[in-house]
Amino acid sequence: MSDTLSVLKERLEKVLGKKVSRLHEALGELTLVVRSEDYLEVAKTLRDEPSLGFDQLMDLCGVDYSEYDNSTWEGPRFAAVSHLLSVKHNWRLRLRVFAPVDHYPLVASVTPIWNSANWFEREAFDLYGILFDGHDDLRRILTDYGFIGHPFRKDFPISGNVEMRYDPEQKRVIYQPVTIDPREVTPRVIREESYGS
Question: Which domains are present in the chain?
Answer without folding.
Answer: 3-144 (3.30.460.80)
